[in-house]
Design a protein that fits this description.
Length: 225
Amino acid sequence: MTASAQLCLLAYLTLTLGLTLGLGPNKNMGFTFLLPAGSTECFYHRTAMNDSMEVEYQVIAGSGLDVGFILLSPTGHRLVSDFRRSDGIHMVDPTVDGDYRLCFDNSFSKMSEKMVFFEVVINNQNSKNGGQDDWLETVTSDSMVDYKMEDIRARMDSVHRHLEKSHQVQAMLRAFEARDRYLLEDNLWRVSFWSCVNLSVMLTVAVVQIYTLRRLFVNTKQVRT
């Protein structure tokens, strides 16, 4: 199996990350894509004022397992600039209203394409507080004050945070698994190839030795009677 076929297979196996991470209430996004050799790919993500944004990326497959990464604010200011790194985690707090640009650079590699996984996590405090206040007002209006609403809300917030953290950890573990699988398959191909080469050389040497020894004991002189 060629390297391009392996990268396409890994992209197919990990594509579900991008379809599941972007469905949460906080507009989280996760995506796995192939970055061609000698090119740069940019993605945009919209945020609101005074949110917090966490960006995490990792190179899953490709020669060197490294890319360049640039994070630009909606005003065009460069917030993060990484050069030839295999992974990174960056936090923007607070954010401004607009589209942040995430660019992945593989221009330094002229032959090898890279598979990159990245995740954007938005913590929208305004929407959380707004929804909780509406729910609290609704319950209070129904005279259900005996349920200790503050305690229930604190527990729900804790459960929500733990679920989000578990989701992020599982996504990163899938990315690590995909990268390890690629490395194992690549190493297996190399070991198998050189094992076949060594076996061929050994068989060739054995045949040559047998032929040489037989030639030494063959009597080429003809006896005349």
